[in-house]
């Protein structure tokens, strides 16, 4: 065992929370080390989350377009087929390029990178066990816990990453399954379900509740559900899985109504368990500084990301709040600034969420259900009335989407925004900016938007919130 020179900050975990915090801390002059056990930087997001899933979503969407949409534009292709190995190689290239890029950013900013398992040994001491088992102890003024999350297991359906997979296995299947059952109609279930459905798999989503993505604005969620059904995804809502057995060709699930009732069986080649993620703190040594986790497994923090142990902070998926990469990044920046003696703040009401299906669904702020009892205006504008959406998409899929703005009746400021439609994930940034800067729907309506663009639908929804849109009644 050797002892490394003292640090101002040791960040444990090199995901979007940890790596961004480490870079910001180094920019602010703190001597910073980031400890990561995975072997590559970027955490869940870059390695087995956001990036590989978006790579497969994009590739499978191109396949879908080539098969179904191109001909409506007068482009006739024959013999369109999938080379799954190449699709996976393309995904791997994106991941490797980006994870190496983070390593490059560490070098440029002077962050030391310790490969290995980090464990808090006591106040101001972190032990790093390298891949070869060698241990070193780091003295540090501050520790930032950014250890992220892991898949929530479903005890009756144990994951083997072969036939019963988590998102990680679903991102790396070696062949296109004939039938897939997805347990959980949330972000992962719908994104990965869409990928495999587009590539030819018959996908059935089994959801415990009576609606998909339960936290989503109900009206938008219902539209989303209808569109996905049209895309041939099957849904079994209000259903619970009570058991699973392996069969020669895959898995047989036993399911029953969530409220209780007759059991039935469902067969599939592959089952994806996507019922949520839980904070990850295994082997971290929290007990050595008197810390424990709450009943959801989260490390408890105050508004400045401080735990109850002096000099120990925590951010990202391992603490309360949405498990999203950009939330972790923002917390990383603010935590680093606080540790460096500055002040910082995050507006948790203005953190967007995006489901990267086709069409995308994006949201920020309050849903209509959350505004019951509040005086609010509602402005909607359908993409059916947006010239760019109609021009781009001859099949009319886009025509089913809309932009919905919810604004305070008294102040006219945005309380929430919900989009289902093309480019929703990009357009939501306008709503987030409006919320952060306190813009009113009148301000947005007065802001010139280029024509013909999808973002004109945002402006028209803002017009509809306090008056009337031009291109729709
Ligand atoms: P993580 O990214 O989980 O990073 C934590 C890191 O800490 C890990 O690399 C882990 O190996 C390391 N670690 C843990 N313990 C130790 C230890 N003791 N010592 C050393 N290292 C340790 N979010 C989005 O915003 N957009 C998306 O499109 C999106 N898509 C997703 C798709 C999938 C399939 C999944 C699973 C997640 C997705 N997410 C997405 C969520 C996103 O990945 C997480 O919110 C984000 O990665 C959280 O960042 P983090 O830094 O808190 O934790
Ligand atoms: P999720 O929380 O989004 O969805 C889980 C779904 O499973 C919910 O609808 C829930 O009601 C349902 N469920 C729970 N227990 C169940 C059971 N026993 N049987 C059937 N259904 C059950 O979780 P998911 O999809 O696993 O993703 C985890 C997290 O990762 C997300 O919440 C999100 O924070 C993040 N993520 C973000 C993405 C993005 O930003 N585009 C993409 C993928 C993941």
Automatic annotation (TrEMBL):
Gene3D superfamilies: 3.30.390.30, FAD/NAD(P)-binding domain (3.50.50.60). Binds 1 FAD per subunit. One of its GO terms (cellular component) is oxoglutarate dehydrogenase complex. Disulfide bonds join 45-50. The active site is at residue 451. Pfam families: Pyr_redox_2, Pyr_redox_dim. Its cofactor is FAD. InterPro entries: Class-I_Pyr_Nuc-Dis_Oxidored, FAD/NAD-bd_sf, FAD/NAD-binding_dom, FAD/NAD-linked_Rdtase_dimer_sf, Lipoamide_DH, Pyr_nuc-diS_OxRdtase, Pyr_nucl-diS_OxRdtase_dimer, Pyr_OxRdtase_I_AS. NAD(+) binds at residues 184-191, 207, 276. FAD binds at residues 54, 118, 147-149, 317, 323-326. It comes from the Eukaryota. Residues 8-332 form the FAD/NAD(P)-binding domain. Residues 351-462 form the Pyridine nucleotide-disulphide oxidoreductase dimerisation domain. It catalyses: N(6)-[(R)-dihydrolipoyl]-L-lysyl-[protein] + NAD(+) = N(6)-[(R)-lipoyl]-L-lysyl-[protein] + NADH + H(+). The keyword Disulfide bond applies. Its EC number is 1.8.1.4. One of its GO terms (biological process) is 2-oxoglutarate metabolic process. Keywords: Disulfide bond, FAD, Flavoprotein, NAD, Nucleotide-binding, Oxidoreductase, Redox-active center. GO terms for molecular function: dihydrolipoyl dehydrogenase (NADH) activity; flavin adenine dinucleotide binding. The active site is a redox-active disulfide bond. Belongs to the class-I pyridine nucleotide-disulfide oxidoreductase family. This is Dihydrolipoyl dehydrogenase.
